[in-house]
Design goal:
Layout: E1 15-17, H1 31-42, E2 47-50, H2 52-58, E3 67-70, H3 74-80, E4 84-87, E5 93-97, E6 102-107, H4 135-140, E7 149-152, E8 157-160, H5 164-170, E9 172-173, H6 179-185, H7 188-200, E10 203-204, H8 206-215, H9 224-236, H10 240-249, H11 253-256, H12 262-269, H13 277-286, H14 293-316, H15 322-336, H16 344-361, H17 367-373, H18 379-393, H19 397-412, H20 428-437
Helix pairs in contact: 6-8, 7-9, 7-10, 12-14, 13-18, 14-15, 14-16, 14-18, 15-16, 16-18, 18-19
């Protein structure tokens, strides 16, 4: 059994909503998460459902993940759960592996000491977050009030140390603590504020907005891998348009994703209106279409590429050659990779998708060549990118339908049968045997 947490009673008591005063029911929680919560509780540990799962259940939404926080340490979690895997360096936690899901379990943390960090002198950037603490300390080290609510499996109550219940009612994204400090500790929190506001249809509290505008340059200090993860999560949330609009309004877009500003600039130079790209991506997500990470990132580069292509073709009065287009996409992707971290194979996929998109726009295809091109591995992703642009701008529907017809024809076409050469009977051995028997 875990020892009592020192200092847990410091400060004012939390606001506690007993079971009749909140809408959360155990039947809404993933059964595997319930198993984890009950095992921890029966072993004498505190066991809370935490974070976005509690927030979404309070709002009447269906959570995507169910995370657990406890006072059990990682080595104790490994002892309690044979299906546990300890992961992470900056933030160590346990993944409890089930056949159909993973339940993430973290130990209560407190704000880490500055001397424990690897950041430069005078910087507040958190590089290690493994200092264990109490439930209160854990709540106060979280990013936003609406993400710091706890559901206690012991008595089915909701625990609020930071005012998250009231902010849910106000539909407000508010940072916990001093906003400037929290954003310097972890600049990615600024992106998350915009994502939550866009996804939930909330406003961002004024002090939080002002701090984002002051600290937007700190995004350059964030780990590129985390920026990539957050960007993809934002693009997949189904409300990317509203989230990116918040980033534009607060000045984050020009720091993080200047390529997306071409959505506005394109209309100014006459290249077309690309403002519908993000709403189109949101529609695809709500339709539960399968959209790869490579297609999403290619779509973010597309407006800048289209502006450059339009400018070239207007000035030179000719179609941009595939060689020039490939050079352009490589240049823009290299600039993109200065801020984000993308695996080499995914980088190659993005280039192939954009290359295929440009080829789809070429009006000089013959039916036979169209069919051959449809057999390329990247054809479907390139066609999806073409569909995104067509739905966003309202232009190109005839060409899109032609390519969809080719795709359907390709699917109906039977795979060619491979004829294996017939095996010839070998008789030489029998003849030789006969010769030996005759003494030949």
């Amino acid at each position: 059994m875990a020892p009592p947490c020192a200092g847990e009673d410091d400060g004012p008591p939390p606001r506690i909503l007993p079971r009749p005063e909140h809408p959360i029911s155990r039947s809404q929680v993933d059964p595997n998460a319930i198993k984890v919560l009950y095992r921890l509780h029966k072993q004498g540990f505190k066991a809370y459902l935490v974070g976005g799962g509690v927030r979404d259940l309070m709002l009447g939404l269906k959570p995507k993940d169910f995370d657990v926080a406890t006072d059990a340490r990682p080595n104790e979690l490994r002892r309690l759960f044979r299906n546990a895997r300890i992961i992470g360096r900056r933030f160590r936690l346990a993944h409890i592996l089930f056949k159909d899901s993973i339940v993430e379990v973290s130990t209560f943390r407190r704000a880490p000491d500055p001397e424990e960090q690897d950041s430069a002198p005078g910087e507040l950037l958190i590089t290690s977050d493994n200092t264990y603490g109490t439930p209160r300390e854990d709540a106060f080290r979280r990013d936003f009030t609406i993400n710091a609510l706890f559901y206690n499996i012991a008595d089915f109550s909701v625990i609020d140390y930071v005012g998250g219940i009231d902010d849910l009612k106000r539909r407000l994204v508010r940072v916990i603590g001093v906003p400037d400090v929290r954003f310097q500790e972890d600049p990615v929190r600024m992106m998350r504020a915009c994502e939550f506001a866009g996804r939930l249809g909330f406003a961002i509290e004024s002090r939080t907005q002002e701090a984002i505008q002051r600290n937007r340059g700190a995004l350059a200090k964030a780990a590129p891998a985390r920026l990539t993860e957050e960007l993809l999560q934002l693009l997949k949330c189904g409300h990317a348009g509203a989230s990116i609009q918040w980033m534009l309004d607060l000045g984050l877009l020009e720091v993080l994703l200047p390529e997306a500003l071409a959505m506005v600039r394109a209309r100014q130079v006459g290249a077309g209106d690309f403002s519908g790209i993000l709403p189109t991506i949101d529609a695809l997500m709500q339709e539960e279409r399968e959209v790869s990470d490579a297609v999403l990132l290619a779509a973010m580069l597309l407006p800048e590429i289209m502006v450059r292509r339009f400018t070239y073709e207007t000035e030179n009065r000719r179609w941009m050659s595939i060689e020039l287009f490939q050079s352009l996409t490589r240049e823009l992707l290299e600039r993109f990779l200065q801020r984000f971290q993308i695996a080499n194979h995914k980088r190659a996929q993005i280039l192939q998708i954009l290359d295929g998109f440009h080829r789809l726009c070429d009006p000089s295809w013959t039916p036979a060549k169209r069919l051959r091109f449809a057999s390329k591995s990247h054809f479907e992703d390139s066609l999806l990118l073409f569909e995104i642009l067509t739905r966003a701008t309202g232009e190109g529907h005839v060409v899109l339908e032609q390519w969809h017809a080719v795709a359907r024809q390709r699917q109906r076409r039977p795979e060619p049968k491979i004829e294996l050469p017939r095996r010839r009977r070998r008789r030489g051995g029998r003849r030789r045997k006969g010769k030996l028997e005759r003494g030949g």
